[in-house]
Automatic annotation (TrEMBL):
The gene is pyrK. InterPro entries: Cyt_c3_hydrogenase_gsu, Dihydroorotate_DH_ele_sf, Dihydroorotate_DH_Fe-S-bd, Dihydroorotate_DHASE_ETsu, FAD-bd_FR_type, FNR_nucleotide-bd, OxRdtase_FAD/NAD-bd, PyrK_electron_transfer. Responsible for channeling the electrons from the oxidation of dihydroorotate from the FMN redox center in the PyrD type B subunit to the ultimate electron acceptor NAD(+). Pathway: Pyrimidine metabolism; UMP biosynthesis via de novo pathway; orotate from (S)-dihydroorotate (NAD(+) route): step 1/1. This is Dihydroorotate dehydrogenase B (NAD(+)), electron transfer subunit. SUPFAM superfamilies: Ferredoxin reductase-like, C-terminal NADP-linked domain (SSF52343), Riboflavin synthase domain-like (SSF63380).
């Protein structure tokens, strides 16, 4: 875990209340694994708030940059959205446990994302398509909320669904998955809790990994603000410390 001042290279709106931020630094990008997150210091003296955990959408170790995608939901992320190129951010990371990607060659892999759960799946998919047959299903609330469709389509077969039917398939990601005539040997999912519950139930006989987009306090496992019921001796796991990626078979949703 490293604390580093990183420089904003890009920060722009890419969909409804959704921003893409690219930041550069010397240390943190070199140590990140797909599925981990960083904790961003929020505030400029006038606004002092808890750090915000942001999922990592992409990593470029050559340029020493990471791409973050976040949804503006409150004062902290609203403040982030106003920052311009060249601004310095204090970044703590990488944090949490990332995805395990080693499977048998030729496996059919399913990747399912919903809303702000989509970002960490992009770098994951970039790695998976090097060795496996990957199908991606992404769900959003409405057409204006869709992002990274082209980026995923450049990698592999990608399906889009919207709750209101204004774009792609009308309905939920599980509706799309049920229509796919494919035998998946493993799956990955990240998104809101109801979506994870539905995917876990739908894929109950298939090994999978779930990445949780959970509200956090400290981000390092000290405050117990982001616990999830689990099948272990403690009866729970901490999303920030044990996750955000957990085996689907280990958690109770």
């Amino acid at each position: 875990m490293i604390v580093e001042d990183m420089t904003i290279q890009k920060n722009e709106c890419i969909a409804l209340n959704t921003f893409e931020m690219v930041i550069s630094g010397e240390e943190i990008p070199l140590h990140i694994q797909s599925g981990q997150f960083v904790h961003i210091q929020i505030g400029d003296g006038k606004l002092n708030m808890l750090r915000r955990p942001l999922s990592i959408a992409d990593i470029n170790r050559i340029s020493q940059t990471i791409t973050l995608i976040y949804h503006v939901t409150g004062d902290g992320t609203k403040w982030l959205s106003t920052l311009t190129e060249g601004t310095i951010l204090n970044v703590l990371g990488p944090l949490g446990n990332g995805f395990e990607i080693k499977h048998s060659e030729g496996n059919q892999i399913l990747v399912v994302g919903g809303g702000v759960g989509v970002p960490p799946l992009y770098h994951l998919t970039k790695q998976l398509v090097r060795h496996y047959q990957v199908t991606v299903v992404l769900g959003f609330a409405t057409r204006e909320a869709v992002f990274y469709e082209d980026e995923f389509r450049e990698l592999t077969k990608t399906y889009i669904s919207t709750d209101d039917g204004t774009y792609g398939h009308k309905g939920f990601v599980t509706d799309v998955v049920s229509q796919l005539d494919l035998n998946f040997q493993h799956y990955y999912a990240c998104g809101p809790m109801p979506m994870l519950q539905a995917v876990q139930e739908q894929m109950i006989d298939t090994p999978g990994q779930l990445s949780f987009e959970e509200r956090m306090g400290c981000g390092i496992g000290a405050c117990f603000a982001c616990v999830c019921e689990a099948k272990n001796d403690n009866g729970y796991v901490k999303i920030c410390q044990d996750g955000p990626v957990l085996q689907a078979s280990e958690v109770i949703l």
